[in-house]
Amino acid sequence: MLRLEWVRRLQTITQAGLTYTRDAYDRQRYEQLQELAAEIAESFAPVTSTASQLGATGSQLGATSESWLDLIRAEKGYATPKVDVRGVVERDGKLLFMREAHDGLWSLPGGWADIGESPSQIAEREVLEETGFVVKASKLLAVYDKARHAHPPEFWYCYKMFVRCELHGGAPARSIETLDTSFFGVNELPPLSQPRVTEAQVRRMFEHLAHPDLPTDFD
């Protein structure tokens, strides 16, 4: 979706400009550019009707009270990629998946990185909150540029981290984000939530499990 990329680039420029400018007139111009970016986005992607197809979760695009201008102006400081962390949990040759309440499809457990937590802490917490299983992070398997993979178009630029986690206990549990949890083998993959994980990524995680000496992937 090329127009979404234009809006993202405009948002990045205006966010940096507002961060560093000391001139009141320049600030006004950057704010006008934000309004223009929001108008462009709204013309082809109304924020309340395209949340799922743009790969949004939570407050990103799903709240009906938000507008594109609210979303664009919510980000402060120099624009940097967001980080999504996924837990890769194996049991008997199968991987742990959770069924997303947002779209009814399946994903490796995980979510946006929070300030104040390391990637390992985020992976462990997300797995526990979304599936009920207690795990211990053991290895960073991959760091991917989301835009280089077969995900649906998304407004926020994002890096995805896949963290191997060892299963220590717990039991299947649901949450406000989770409809179900289950383990699936490489030849029995469920319908995947494409904004969160792709089939190619999941199959690569199985390769990492089969060959634990593989180095961390990155692109």
Structure overview:
- With 219 residues, the chain is an alpha+beta fold.
- The chain folds into 2 domains: 2-74; 82-218, Nucleoside Triphosphate Pyrophosphohydrolase.
- It is built from 5 helices and 8 strands, in the order αααββββαβββαβ.
- Strands 1, 2, 3, 4, 5, 6, 7 and 8 form an 8-stranded mixed β-sheet that branches.
- Helix 2 (24-44) packs across helix 3.
- The two termini are 21 Å apart.
- Mean pLDDT is 89; it is low at 49-65.
Taken from the alpha-carbon principal axes, the silhouette is elongated
Number of domains as seen in the coordinates: 2
Q: Provide the CATH superfamily of the largest domain.
A: Nucleoside Triphosphate Pyrophosphohydrolase
Mean pLDDT: 89
Largest sheet: 8 strands, mixed
Give the tally of β-strands. Answer: 8
Q: How would you summarize the topology of this molecule?
A:
Elements: H1 2-20, H2 24-44, H3 68-74, E1 82-91, E2 94-100, E3 106-107, E4 110-112, H4 119-131, E5 133-145, E6 158-170, E7 178-184, H5 199-210, E8 217-218
Parallel strand pairs: 1-6, 5-8
Antiparallel strand pairs: 1-2, 1-4, 2-3, 2-7, 5-6
Helix pairs in contact: 1-2, 2-3
